[in-house]
Amino acid sequence: MARGGFTLVEILIALAILGILLVMSVSTFQGMNEKYRVEAETKQLYADLMEARGRAVQRNRVHFVRLSVGGNVYATYDDTNTPPDGNGAFDNAVDSQIANAVMTHAVATNLPVAGGVASFEFNRNGIASSAGYIRLSSTAQADYDCITIVPTRIKMGQFNGGNCVEK
């Protein structure tokens, strides 16, 4: 006579398989979540840089960008010292801060650095004063984790082999 149901061993094997699948899916989810956080921060930084560039042209004044290298903070400033069009020199106490962000990933760059701060500016024509890249440090293989800056353009890319490869 056949009995319906499962044995204790069959149930334990099924639970073990489910446990293994659950652990694998959680680690995959965490990796994907990290990838999306890096991409989101890169896109926000890109948007703030593009806004600073656009404002420089629109307002006909210099806009400054400051990045904490090895840290996770950046800010953009409008040159408001000496109205109406500024004096072209950064003054933290007087110039108006436009964007300020604290990110979860550290910033690395090959832009000029002084005192742990990388800085450059957009002139009245929207042209950047320096060329280089800004990278968000992470172990995740994000599609976008760096930004290249050249005098006439800003583009997002993926850091690969010591360079930011534009996409």
Describe this structure in words.
The structure is a single chain. The chain is α+β, with helices and mostly antiparallel strands and 167 residues long. The protein has a single domain, classed as minor pseudopilin epsh domain (minor pseudopilin epsh fold, 3-Layer(bab) Sandwich). It is built from 1 helix and 10 strands; from the N terminus they run H-E-E-E-E-E-E-E-E-E-E. The protein has one helix at 8-59; strands spanning 63-68, 73-78, 96-102, 107-109, 113-114, 117-122, 132-136, 146-150, 153-160, 163-166. The strands form 2 sheets. A 5-stranded antiparallel sheet has the order 3-2-1-6-5, with helices on one face. Strands 4-7-8-9-10 form a 5-stranded antiparallel sheet, covered by helices on one side. The protein starts with 7 loop residues before the first helix and ends with a strand. The model has no long low-confidence stretch (mean pLDDT 91).
SSE diagram, text form:
Blueprint: H1 8-59, E1 63-68, E2 73-78, E3 96-102, E4 107-109, E5 113-114, E6 117-122, E7 132-136, E8 146-150, E9 153-160, E10 163-166
Brief digest:
This protein has 167 residues and is α+β, with helices and mostly antiparallel strands. It has one helix at residues 8-59; strands at residues 63-68, 73-78, 96-102, 107-109, 113-114, 117-122, 132-136, 146-150, 153-160, 163-166.
